[in-house]
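From: lab user (bench 3)
To: helpdesk
Subject: output format question, protein + zinc ion

Hello, I'm new to running complex predictions and I'm not sure whether the block I got back is the full result or only part of it. Here's what I submitted:
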Amino acid sequence: MDITILGIESSCDDTSAAVLRDNRLLSNVIASQAVHVKYGGVIPELASRAHQQNIVPVVDTALREAGVAASEIDAIAFTRGPGLVGSLLVGVSFAKGLSIARNIPLVEVNHLQGHILSHFIDLPDQELPHPEFPFLCLLVSGGHTQIVRVDSPLEMRIIGTTIDDAAGEAFDKCAKVMGLPYPGGPVIDRLAKEGDPAAFRFARPRVEECDYSFSGLKTSFLYTLRDRVAEDPEFIERHKADLCASLQHTIVAILLDKLVRASKQTGIRDIAIAGGVSANSGLRDGIVAEGKKRGWRTFLPEFKFTTDNAAMIAMAGHYRYRHGDFSTLDIAPEARLEEL
Ligand code: KG4
Ligand code: ZN
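Helpdesk reply: Thanks, we reran it on our side. This is the complete output you should expect:
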């Protein structure tokens, strides 16, 4: 029997709804919020207001594009957390309202599990490669940097995590001090293509086991800029591409180093990446090159599944639905959900 899931995602600054039939994506609508750009970061209060404006038309469009009526939906999957609580509340409340109005079961989804399970989505006209269990997933976003061992769609364990900043945060914060627009990750990625990755050297962390740290790199980047700008006020402008290329090169090297370690420790060689930073071209090339050297099968997500989207929430909801993991109407959003 086909399972049709409506997914709803509102954890940060993208309002998204998607319809999935089994693994096949029927629609995936994302309304991004431009309102935050002028502040150089997401303003939570503005985000929740924009979600309120967007949620009804976004869900409506997703159902229409999929050609699916509300009566055909088997379950509504929504992001419970982690994320901004005011933003999450809009998606959770909408999901509950629709559930009551149409008598459709609810399935809560952990946003991070969604990112990981995006590797099981197929396109309407194309099957995509799916990793086999167990696999390792490097989950890299604006708020998280984790190596996750995935034993089944519902059994995941974090085996390494950042002890301070996330990789996306390192991109965004360093971009900010260079005067680049928010979010800085994609801008650095673009500028890095014209720069020399060996032009500058920045601090590399020494952290135990498979854990990460990016705050030392951020500080060393900041100090380099401060010292050089003191000698030459035009320094950043003149060396922007080299700075971006060197920074990206360092972040990718840090990420790969622990991923290699995790693969050796577990013996797992199906390696996936997910989350906003998995769109980074340096990381994508780096994983593929490392994989060739080490006999990994590597899985890079389609670009549209790297940043926040409801397709991945629907995919995770599909597995929970099959497992009978339903949510009740007293469910509340959670800003922090550390366990997977
Ligand atoms: O997963 P995501 O959309 O939201 C969170 O759950 O955090 O990730 C957003 C993060 C931001 O830090 C953004 O700068 C980063 O992903 N990002 C990138 C690229 N595209 C998005 N970082 C580096 N290179 C990119 N191409
Ligand atoms: Zn995310």
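A quick orientation on your result: Residues 203 and 217 are 5 Å apart (CA to CA). Let us know if anything else is unclear.
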